[in-house]
Each structure stands twice: as structure tokens, then as C-alpha cells.
Specification:
The complex is a heterodimer of chains A (about 220) and B (about 210).
Chain A (H helix, E strand, L loop, with lengths): L3 E4 L5 H12 L4 E4 L11 H4 L9 E4 L2 E4 L1 H11 L13 H31 L9 H24 L10 H16 L4 H4 L2 H11 L2 H14 L2
Parallel strand pairs in A: 1-2
Antiparallel strand pairs in A: 1-3, 3-4
Helix pairs in contact in A: 1-3, 1-6, 1-9, 4-5, 4-6, 5-8
Chain B lengths: L3 E5 L4 H12 L4 E5 L10 H4 L9 E4 L2 E4 L1 H11 L12 H34 L6 H24 L10 H15 L5 H4 L2 H11 L2 H4 L4
Parallel strand pairs in B: 1-2
Antiparallel strand pairs in B: 1-3, 3-4
Classes of the chains: A alpha+beta (about 220), B alpha+beta (about 210).
Chain lengths: ~220, ~210
Amino acid sequence: MAAVKLYGPLASTATSRALACLLEKQVEYQLIPVDLKKGEQKKPQFLAMQPFGQVPVLQDGALTLFESRAIVRYIAEKYAAQGTIGLLGKSLAERAVIEQWMEVESQTYNPPSSFLVFQLAFAPLWGIPQNQAEIVKNEKKFSKVLDVYEKRLSESKYLGGDEFSIADLSHLPNTEYIVKATGKSELITSRKYVNAWWEDISSRDSWKKIREMSKAGNKK
Amino acid sequence: MAAIKVHGYHASTLTVMVLCCLNEKEVEYELVLVDLPTGAHKKPEYLALNPFGVVPTIQDGDLTLYESRAIIRYLAKKFQGQGTNFLGSTLSEEALVYQWCEVEGQSFNPPALSIVSQIVFVPMRGGSTDEAAVEMNVEKLEKVLDIYEERLSKSKYLAGDFFSLADLQHLPCTHYLVNACGKGDLISSRKHVNAWWEDISSRPTWKINFT
């Protein structure tokens, strides 16, 4: 069976979200880099696959699929019988709670954390001026969200329940940058249960592999 | 079998979207009013159901579930054998449904909701519309809708030739854009987007909530 193709740079949070799922499910893949600096994602060849000009894109046989969270769901469903089992829960009710926390990540965790990552980790690298007022606003927002997570994770080992699921997986990329690259790691580490959850999910083989690949990529 | 309870507000379009979904799936439900104008959604009783203090939340037996997109996904799966088939017929079709659901959540909703928020909700709370923010988000939304126009020129609905969760997800915000923000031209100026909007917004299960 031909390997699935994942187009995107590893440094992109959306790309590493999709890749984490491929690794958890032990799916053979080919990671094809896309040079965002050169605007490769806005060229006709790429737009033909992804009309919004964003990474990543998955090609699996005749299917071309974009949006990392859709890719995660598809991979988890198609390869349900291999790799980490139970990423979608063991019942409809479990899956529902997992989907709930997928949406919380998408609509409530992602916006403020992405903003902070861009402003604090990338803007300085790219010579883009920071917006201090908005940084403060988003940090406050993100803190409030994390307080809800702290309560949830004090009652439940993982977001969806007792087992690691795509809901936890979806949080890996942004949280990695928050902890490693923004100078705001205490947002995570100061919260007992959020911190324990972060330590747990980020030490999974799949995420360790992505960290290794990132290091190797940065040495080029 | 006990009816599903929907905790929500009749004028909240996300609540209406969940009710629409239940009707499409021919599932019995009970609407439990959460009186938003009096702040019921921020009171301890409601926060015990939904710690983020937003509507809607559903209760189905022992399951309490919030996030409207997660709710409709659950209903679509649980009642897959009856009513409207929201998920397509193959795994690949289902994947495309999720793809366009994510496009709604990540690309359409942020600018669309910002526009609706500035024009409808901010004044309701005593503030004034930030016209620059509206203009900026209209520009963003125009670019997204151009891509929709291209897609819908090749496909009757977003995920394929069937009405899916992805189309359903667009009803709440677009309803406000067209009916409460004076931004109907964003839709009507695009031939295929307009045809699609006319089609999905005239489904009886949606329309009935606004008569």
C-alpha cells in the first residue's frame, strides 16, 4: 500500500498535529516540505490541492484532504485497528466528549494560544512589531481557559476521559510552543493538573519523534 | 426513551442549529430555556453543565455535551440510520464533511462572527460598532467566499452532492449576516454561494424557527 503523503513544514502547528496522528496510528507516510517563506503554499500547484493556501494537505490514494483536525479524525477512523487504540473513544458517548474537547481546542484554546505563539515566538524572529496590549489581553483570556482545563483535568486523566484521545493530541503543537518558545511556560507549569497532563502527553513516542525530527531539521 | 434535553435560548442561532439538526434527524427533544438576557448562562446552575457558560448544552441520558459543532456531530453519528444523512456514504465522503466543517470553524466563522458581533451584539451590550474592524473582517470574508464560490460552482453542497453537517454549520452566522447586519450582498453577489444559501436556508427545519 502506498504511503500517504502529508504536505507541510514540520514547524507548522497544523502540520505537526496531523503528523502526530499518523505516528500514533503507525501509518506509513511521506512528509513533503512546503516552503512557506518562499510562498510555495500560494502557488497554483499547491492551491489546486488546497484553495485556501494553507498547510497541511493529506493525499491518501484518490482522496485529497485538508484542515489538520479533519485529517486527524480521518486517520483515526480509517486506521482504527492499528497503532494506538481508542483515539476516538470506545463508545458513541465517549466519542462525543472527545469531540467536545476537540471543539474546545479549536474554538477556545487555539485562538489565544496561537496569538501568543505568533507574537512572542515568531514576530521577533521575523522582525514584525509586537502588539503588547493584545498580548496582555490574550494572556488573560488563555489563563481563564486554562483554569477550566485545570478543573477538568483534576477530575479526568485526559480531556475525553481515562484514555489518551485525539482531543489531547490536538493540543500538542500549540502547547509545545507555549512552553518552549514564548517565555510564558508558567501558564502551563503553574497549574498542577494541566502540567501533569502536559508532561504525560508530550512524552508519548509520537511527540518525542516529532521533537527529534524538529531538532534534526534545525541542524541543516 | 426520554427525550433529549437542549439547554438553550430560542433566539440563539447556535441553539436553533441544534434544534434544526434534531428535526432533520427526526429525534424528539425538549427545549429547556436558558434566559440569556438575565445572565442565566453565567449562573452556577448552568456552569455546572457547561463551565464555559455558553449555549447550547444537551443532555442525552447520562451524557452532558456542549459545543454546538460537537453536538451535531454526535447526533449525526448516533442517529445515522434515520432522517437526513449528514455524513455521506463512505469514509472519504465523511472526511470531506469534516474538512468543510473545519473550514467553517477556522476560516469562515472568525471573520463572520466578528462582523455579527460588532454590528449586532456590541450595540446590544451598550457599546458602539468598530467600523474599521467590520471593514477588515468583510475583506477577509470576501476572500473566503470567493473560494466557496469556486467550490460551489463544482459541487452542489460543500462536501459533495449531499446536504451535510458542513452546510448546516453555516446557517447560524450567515443568517445573522444576511438578516441582521445588512451584509446580504456578500452572499447575493456570488451566483453559486447565493444558490447554495437560498437552498439551505429554505429547508423547513431551519425556516420554521424564524416565522
